[in-house]
Every structure is written in C-alpha cells, then in structure tokens.
Amino acid sequence: MNTDVLLPTKENIDKVGRLLRDGQIAAIPTETVYGLAANALDGNSVKNIFSAKGRPMDNPLIVHISDFSQIEKFSLVSDIPEKAYMLTEKFWPGPLTIIMPKGSAVPNEVSAGLDTVAVRLPAHPVARAVIKAADRPLAAPSANTSGSPSPTSSAHVLHDLNGKIPAILDGGLCEVGVESTVVTLVGDCPTLLRPGGVTLEQLQTVIGKVNVSDAVLNKLRDGEKAESPGMKYKHYAPKANLILVRSDDDKYIKYVNAHSTALVGALCYDEDITELSVKCFPFGKKSDCAEQANRLFDALREIDRTNIQTVYGRCPDTHGMAMAVYNRLVRAAGFEVIELA
Length: 341
Ligand code: AMP
Ligand code: MG
What we know:
The chain is of the alpha/beta class. The chain is 30% helix and 18% strand.
C-alpha cells in the first residue's frame, strides 16, 4: 500500500473523511500526538487500527468527537455523569479524555470488552474538521507502532506506518506532545488513569478530590489488575537501555561523566549539555515541563537514530505537567531508576 502524506487542505480533509466512511484508517494530527483514526461505530474498521499498530486487542481506544452533542446523538455514553459536564465545560476542546459508562452504539473492539468508554473532544482544528468530514466519531489511538514512542510529527508516523495505512494528514508538530490526560468518572471517586496536558491539580480545582491510579507512577505488581489496560505495557521505549537517575544536578553530571564511553548517552535538560562529556539528547529546559513534554518523544526517537546503547535520563518530579513527563519516562525506562543520595 502507498502511504500519501497530505497537506490539510479542505480537499484532502474531505478525502480522508471519505476514506474513513469507507471503513479505512488514516493518521490525523491532534494537539496531543498524531492519532490513527477509524470509524468508532464500526468494529471492523476499528480492527484495522489494531493490525496496523500491532496493538494488543485488550487495550481500548479513545473515541474522538467534534462536538459535545455527538455523545448523545451517537449513543456513545449510557449516562453522562454530572462531573463530566463540569470537566468538559472547563477543558474541552482539549487534551482531556473522560471515561464514562458505555453507550449501546460503541462496539466491543473500541472498549476492548469493558462496559466503559473513553471520550475526547480534541482542540486541533484539523482533527475536528476530519471528524466533521467523516460525519461520525473516530476511534484514534496514537499513530505509532505499539510500544514505540508516540508520534508528534508526520515524519514519526511515516517512519512507523509507511505502507500500512493509505494516508497521513500533515498538521505540523503537535503542540502538547504527550497523550491526553485520562480520568475515569466511573466508580466512587474520580481517578486519574494517565497524566497529560491537563494536570491533576487542574482537575481537582474543578471537581474536588481526584485519586491517582497506582499504575500512574509505579510499576504494577505481578498479577495486579490495571485500571487502564494501556498502563500494563512497556511503552515509549527506545532500543537503547534507558536508565533514569534521580539526583541533584551536580550528582547527575558527575555520575554520567564517570560512565562516559562512545556508547553512552544522556537524555538531559538543555542546561546539562555543556557539562556532559557524552552524546546528549536534550528534551527541554529544566524549569519548563511543558517544553519537556513537547520534545520528549522526538528525543526518544533520536536515540534510535544512533548506535548509543545506554542512556542516562533525568528524572523529573511529579507535580503539575512534570507528572506526565515522569509517567512516560519511567515507562520508557522499564521502571529502572537509580537513586543517588
Ligand atoms: P492511546 O489511545 O494509545 O492514547 O491510549 C488510550 C489509553 O486510554 C490507554 O492507556 C487505554 O488503556 C486507556 N483507555 C481507553 N479506554 C479506556 C477505558 N474504557 N477504561 C480505562 N482505560 C481506557
Ligand atoms: Mg498509544
């Protein structure tokens, strides 16, 4: 199959809309990462996403809409919780996914057999235009090969899925750079399942108490059930061995330089570059977590373009946007963290 990279003109958006109505899949830009979209109401179309990505079938997909009213219009949710109105009022359109009780129209391929469904109204104008052109909600996970870093440019998508999908709409670089925040409103207390562009603190400002699922910051113990199936997989990992180093600036620099060889690299802050004697893969300024989120996946992919075998990574804290950066980094590192006292 030939993969066309298309500029997001009206004509091309209509073309992708037709592809999706015909049961095919296509990559589209969103403000978080690129998504691999299919008609969310048709299980057979959705199956194409899983095969192109190599995604395990037990990992459910997020349903993307272009207007709040589509939740009812397409019977996506059986009962919209009060807190969903509060959250969507404040954070939609935007990088927030809300888990609610599943409606009758959502096929099992989307929800992976769960009785809940994840819904998001993206802010990216091209994403919304494609949903409108397709005239139905779109299931869209990240448009990468399952397990590899999520794609934040059309070049990343092409690298992973060239020849496997008919089209990529090129909307430039993604603004947020990490996937959406996922919060579930099913259960006694709202629970954060995945941190992203909307922070825990922002959610709490609007709906009060929000628990944090154990799997957000910690490795699941053997046999422990993931509240969000995606949390149980090793994710975002470069081919090199990534190890996080939790320490102050000086100790990080000294530790990495003491281990310097031609095969060692550093996934570091911009300020570290002049201090380090190894190959650097910078992902933002130390104080700017939004920039770190924005650049992280490209930096992880950059490691794969070299022959570096061991990479020592900075270990951010877990407040605000840093929680999303830490969550992705610690998965990319397979939870290997060195603590320097
Ligand atoms: P992706 O589409 O690749 O950004 O991943 C979607 C994330 O949302 C994965 O971590 C899924 O496990 C999670 N997710 C989607 N639907 C549900 C659901 N109904 N319940 C819990 N987690 C979900
Ligand atoms: Mg993904």
